[in-house]
Every structure is written in C-alpha cells, then in structure tokens.
Amino acid sequence: MQLGVLGRLPLAVARAVLAALRGRLGALCWSLSPLSLPLSVPGWRRVSAPSPAAPAGPRREREREREREDDAPPTPTSVNYHFTRQCNYKCGFCFHTAKTSFVLPLEEAKRGLAMLKEAGMEKINFSGGEPFLQDRGEYVGKLVQFCKQELKLPSVSIVSNGSLIRERWFKKYGEYLDILAISCDSFDENVNVLIGRGQGKKNHVENLHKLRQWCREYGVAFKINSVINRFNVEEDMNEQIKALNPVRWKVFQCLLIEGENTGEDALREAEKFVISDEDFEQFLDRHKGVSCLVPESNQKMRDSYLILDEYMRFLNCRNGRKEPSKSILDVGVEAAIKVSGFDEKMFLNRGGKYVWSKADMKLDW
User: Fold this and answer.
1) Residue 280: enclosing H or E segment and its boundaries?
2) Cα–Cα distance between 296 and 214 in angstroms, integer?
3) Is 254 a catalytic residue?
4) Gyration radius (Cα) of the chain, Å
5) What is the 3-state secondary structure (H, E, C) of 76-87?
6) What are the C-alpha distances in Å from 82 to residues 193, 200, 310, 326?
7) Which among 296, 93, 274 is positioned nearest to 195, based on CA atoms?
8) How many Cβ atoms from other residues are within 10 Å of residue 34's Cβ?
9) Which of 219, 187, 227 has its CA nearest to residue 204?
10) SS in 3 state form for 109-160?
11) Edge-to-edge order in the sheet of strand 155-160
C-alpha cells in the first residue's frame, strides 16, 4: 500500500493501518537486533531481549560442587553403636545411663548394620552400657562376627569395662575383633571405687593386665580409654600406660550431658567430677611423653562422634543433651543422619580416621 492512499481513507481506518505497519516494523527490528542496526519506529519502544545464559565457568562449577557437598548428608564412616544401656558398674560421670533395658532382636540389629555398611560405614564400635552383659557376651560376639565375616568391615571394635570378659570369648570371637578398648580411669583401686568402677573384691587393674595378655595371645589390638575427672586429674599414669603399651590411649575430659549425667531427669550427678580446661591441659602435659596418647576435650567430643542408640537412632548432642533422630530401621540412614548433628570435618580433624584394622597394624602379637 502506498502511504499517499492513507490521506484518502477515513481517520479511524488510517490509524488502524498505521498500527499494523508499526507492528510489522517492530517484528522486523527484533529479527535484526543481533546485527545491532539502529532501527526505530515512532511510538515504539524497544525492550532489550534477555541474554542467553552463558555457560558456567570453572569457578561457578566449583561453587555448585561445594553447594552440593554442603547439602549432602555426612557419610557414617565410623559409628558408635550403644546397643544396650545396662551396666554392672556405676560410674558417676556416665553419659549413657541405664534409662531402659531395651535391646534390639539380633536379626534387626544385623539389618541395621547392613544398612550402615551400604551407606559407607567402615568402622563399627560396639559400646553400652556394658556390651558383655547381654547373653554373657554372645550377643556382641555374634554382631562382631557378622560385621567382619559377612559385611567385611575393615574395623570392628568394642568398648568394655572388662569385668565380664572371659578367655572362652576370645577363643570363639577373637579372630573377628580388631580392637578391644578397656575403660580404666585410675591405677589406684581406691580411686576406681570412688568413681564407681568397682565390683566387690575384683581388682580392676589386675583384670586390665589379664585382658592385655589375652589380646596379645588372640591377636586383638588393645586400647585403653580414660575419663579425666576430679578424682584422677592429679594422677601420674606414665609408668603404667607404658608398661601396658596399648595401640591407643584415649584420654577424655569429663563431659556433662543434660538428661544423662546432669539435670532433673538424669540418673547421674556428674557435676562433682567435672574439671576445667586448664586442669585437663595440665594432665595432658604431664603425659606428653606417652606416644599413644590421644586427647579428647569436650569441644572435640560433642559433635565429632556418630552415636547410635539402642533403637538405632542417631543422637544429636549439639545442644548439650542427646536428641534422637528417627530409627534408621524406619526411615533409612540418609534421612536419620541428616539430624544427627555429626560434624564430619571435626571427626577428621580430631584424627577419627586412623589405622584401625589389625591387618594393617604392625604389632608384635
């Protein structure tokens, strides 16, 4: 259509024709915009088209990778399974007390352990309470055998007070156990009695040496755990520890956990056992010549242990008490571990992963 014709058309029709022409020119300008031609039409305002997203560079890719890592649940590399709360000792500072007598049926416990292995578990540590109370050690023995023989875990360990372990247990299950850790807080029997680690006429220290010998005979790495508290903080244990020569001597600072060893609903009152950070450091300094010493302050302990209770619930200790997740048997490992409070970086920083398989230890059995 020639523009001169517009003058002979009625005004309304002319306006409609101009609007149509303006629309066509606008579309033409959009199609030519990549060429950056300076086209303009009276009454038409060009809006910049959104730029296509540029491909992510290496830096952005790394940022996204970090975001994915932050969102991913931690791996249960090392798990502490407190399958029972029952104990034959009454240690005043105990932070996993006998609030229930529940123990999972053996097959259910095995199912949960297989789930943990599938999720990345490399080390399982059986604890309590006292693990050897259940079925006179048969329960923990069968779990140890299952984890090593069926699940083929690199490391299987037990923490015990040692009072109920017999040599026949080593004969039956010793080959499947990598590490046996015995709790010993003092080499003075009077102090052990004050702490609550006494049982009639039995001598805790004498029993410790007997267990050390059985570990050597049956090829189990021997470890000692000590809780440093007001009653033993001044003790010098250098000579005794060096004589026993454990693969590791774990030295813990006495820890308060609300609802377990402190507070109205607690079964223990551990306040009288608590020591200061300075006192703990002085104890460590006194024993700095012991090469196997592994110190664990309250700060290191609280978030760097993955604790599974008797119902196979992860226990979150970040708020100073044990807040349970749902059981892994009900919701799976990934869902439960997300609320465990476990700090995987702290676990690695405190040396939580070490040479923990006896096959890799250079020991003179």
Assistant:
1) helix 277-286
2) 27
3) no
4) 33
5) CCEEEEECCCCC
6) 24, 26, 6, 16
7) 93
8) 8
9) 187
10) HHHHHHHHHHCCCCEEEEECCCHHHHHHHHHHHHHHHHHHHHCCCCEEEEEE
11) 293-296, 248-253, 221-228, 179-183, 155-160, 123-127, 78-82, 307-308, 313-316, 323-327
Secondary structure tally for the chain: helices H, strands E: 13, 10
Q: Which long-range contacts (CB under 8 A, 24 or more apart) does 261-269 make?
A: 261/92, 261/93, 261/94, 261/95, 261/97, 263/321, 266/97, 267/97, 267/98, 267/99, 268/92, 268/93, 268/94, 268/95, 268/97, 269/92
Q: Tell me if residue 292 is catalytic.
A: no
Residue 7's pLDDT band, with cuts at 50, 70 and 90, is very low
- Give the C-alpha separation, 312 to 123, whole Å: 16
Token look-up 């029952």 returns 86
Contact 267, 98 (CB under 8 A): yes
User: Over the stretch 257-299, which tens digit does the pLDDT of each residue have?
Assistant: 999 999 988 999 999 999 999 999 999 999 999 999 999 988 7
Q: β-pairing, 293-296 with 123-127? A: unpaired
The catalytic position among 87, 147, 184, 254 is 87
Please report, for residues 120, 310, 355, the alpha-carbon distance to residue 110 in angstroms, rounded to integers and kept in the order given.
Answer: 15, 13, 25
Please tell me the distance from the alpha carbon of residue 343 to that of residue 320, in angstroms, as a whole number.
Answer: 15
Q: Cα 270 to the chain's mean position, in Å?
A: 24
pLDDT digit string, tens, across residues 131-158: 999 999 999 999 999 999 999 999 999 9
Catalytic residue among 29, 91, 184, 254: 91
**215: annotated active-site residue:** no
Residue with tokens 């020119």: 25
User: CA nearest 156: which of 227, 214, 81?
Assistant: 81
Q: Express each pLDDT in 100-128 by its tens digit.
A: 999 999 999 999 999 999 999 999 999 99
Phi (first) and psi of residue 53, to 5 degrees = -60, 130
H or E stretch including 68? Answer: helix 58-71
Give the span between the Cα atoms of 294 and 29, in whole angstroms: 74
For the question of whether the overall pTM of this predicted structure is more than 0.70, the answer is yes
Which structure tokens are listed for 350? 């405190």
| CA 78 to centroid of chain Cα atoms | 7
